[in-house]
Specification:
This protein has 268 residues and is an alpha/beta fold. It has nine helices and seven strands. Helix 1 packs across helix 8 and helix 2 packs across helix 3. It is globular, with a radius of gyration of 19 Å.
């Protein structure tokens, strides 16, 4: 296993970890709701597309009898996950597998729960993966799919630099396509839909310290990918790299606004 992480690996891992830190209450509530669909005997969980393990650790916390198998294509992400699991005191209940889930899925004893967070839209053939997920579960086992409906927004309409609406234009310039409604895909794979729940997240100012870092990471990613007019990129450059009150790190007017949708489906 090559655990050498590139700068892109590290940036993505840090972004995912910041997301979990800032939205910890959302993740805690989501795990609590998910637990209501189980019968109390959840012992084997698969975290599909685990990344650095934010979901893996949350699952281990909320299902203390369970062993969680974290699967990802990235060895550096899994290496980071193992280190975090050790620090978190749950390494004895975490297993990692470096597997491309666009191919065959891990075989063995069936799982009680498959967790797929911000994962399906990365796959070449998500319908094929959902069929694999179906047969990876025991009868009456659960699949939970959760997706971000749009990239978080942080700035007020008038950010104090450039024309109003800066962040909206930057989002539009990335040509981001919202994730599909997975309901039909789940039904075609054989699942029975138990719930589809959209949740609006709106954290008001003043921001917690982690929000500044989260906004910095997210807006840096936009800066790297947005093909927009020079005036807006110059404004964003000031927000990210300036040393005055407009800099993201110094602002007290940041919010976190996004929506997430979760589907809970059961293998009959």
């Amino acid at each position: 296993m090559n655990t050498h992480a590139s700068a892109a690996d590290i940036a993505m891992a840090e972004l995912l970890e910041l997301d979990a830190e800032v939205l910890q209450s959302h993740l805690t509530n989501l795990m609590g709701r998910l637990a209501t669909f189980t019968d109390g005997s959840t012992e084997r969980i698969l975290d599909a597309g685990s990344g650095p393990g934010t979901g893996t650790l949350a699952l281990a916390d909320h299902f203390p009898r369970a062993t969680v198998t974290a699967v990802d294509t990235s060895a550096p992400m899994l290496h980071r996950l193992v280190k975090r699991a050790l620090a978190h005191g749950v390494a004895d209940r975490i297993r990692t597998l470096e597997v491309d889930l666009d191919g065959p899925w891990p075989r063995g004893e069936p799982f009680d729960l498959v967790w797929a967070a911000a994962f399906l839209h990365h796959l070449k053939d998500p319908d094929r993966a959902l069929r694999h997920a179906f047969y990876s579960l025991r009868p009456r086992g659960l699949l939970a799919v959760t997706e971000m409906d749009f990239f978080p927004r942080f700035l007020p309409e008038d950010a104090g630099i450039g024309r109003p609406g800066l962040e909206a234009r930057l989002h539009a310039a990335t040509n981001t396509v919202p994730p599909p409604d997975w309901t039909g895909h789940l039904l075609r794979a054989g699942f029975a839909l138990e719930a589809r729940r959209p949740v609006t997240i709106d954290l008001p100012p003043p921001p917690a310290p982690a929000v500044h870092r989260y906004a910095q990471a997210c807006l840096t990613r936009l800066y790297q990918h947005a093909a927009t007019e020079p005036e807006d990129l110059a404004a964003l450059d000031t927000l990210l790299r300036g040393d005055g009150p407009l800099n993201i790190a110094n602002r007290d007017d940041l919010t976190v606004r996004t929506t997430r949708t979760t589907w809970v489906a059961r293998r009959p």
